UniProtKB/TrEMBL annotation:
Keyword Flavoprotein: no
Name of the protein described by the UniProt record: Beta-ketoacyl-[acyl-carrier-protein] synthase family protein
This protein's UniProt keywords: Isoprene biosynthesis, Transferase
Chain intervals for the UniProt region annotation (Disordered): 256-276
Amino acid sequence: MGRDVVVTGLGLVTPLGQTTESTWNGLVDGASGCGPITQFDPDEAGLRTDIAGEVGTDTGVINTDILVDDRTMGRYAQFAVTAAAEALDDAGFDPISPAWNSDRVGTSIGSGLAGLSEVEAAAGDRPSPSFLVTALTNLAAGHVSICIDARGPNRAPGTACSAGTHAIGAATDDIRRGRADVAVAGGTDAAISPLGVGSFEAMRALSSRTDDPEAASRPFDADRDGLVLAEGSGIVVLEARDHARERGATPYAAVSGAGWTGDAHHPTRPTESGDGLRRCVEQALSEANYEPTAVDHVNAHATSTSVGDAREAEALESVFASTSTPPVTSIKGQIGHTLGAAGAIEAAVVAQTISKGIVPPTANYETPDPDCNVPVVTETRKNEIDVVVSTSAGFGGTNGALVLEQP
């Protein structure tokens, strides 16, 4: 199994705010980050959908030595750099300090659509010299590594909406196997553009409840009719437990297991029984050496789509068939679906859940669906949480799961 891995820093850029504190407070208070699209005119673009979960325009950084450069960084990379700055500051690291051992620091940041907006903006024009570095999928990880002088393992999973979860799982493995002592890991996406919104609209994946954006995303609810597209980034600082102990850091949580499976079924639809995700969660629990009975909470992928939520519920019912399914939350009712960033944002939220003993609610869950027979958390709860499973799933039938626990 190798070295134990703990989470020592959190950074979030979401529709609820550009810090972990603002996002967390918004979640537990029941706030919504979904609203009218402001980045472009949906009417001019010929779209019916005019709502999304946008990040505010006041993008900034906490550590002024780590700079966001919009000339060379796409919007998705700017989110990642901003979140990474907060996470490193939260963990007590200073990348310009002589004590910063850059050769032993890795970066692992996934993305689903990455620089789609930058590609769309450049279409038909002569590309600028900086075009590729604003658009390529690996440049969020690349820019972060440059900004913080991280010279260890560097990767960028492009596994759709599982990318952030896969990035954290892979970085955990880097530390366990001794390839790094510290890793800056997570996910980021910024696909709110005419092409991004239009593509999901064409697939009929978006909610039509545009007159009430705060109520549009309804995970597991019987009246759900599609997701709300969103943007943002989640970054966690992972660290070998002995390394964290030596410098006196206090972990939020430990990452004890990860699962990776494929449905091998359909480009967009999960298997009828949710079998791929079931196997993924079981794999993560096996790696963590836990039986399903040990799990106190599930932070679900649940995007508010009819088929996706139902298949995930089936998967969870199957995993926990020998016991009662633990309380389930999906935060997408409040922030929408951030694509490749979703699993990473949710991992950071899970770390807070474990650290604070608070389970955030699932917004807009009002009418139980017989096809989603799981105990959905509808109000903020305070209770001690020891073991949490966080799930992700994406186009192409890619699944990811993490097990996080008390440190």
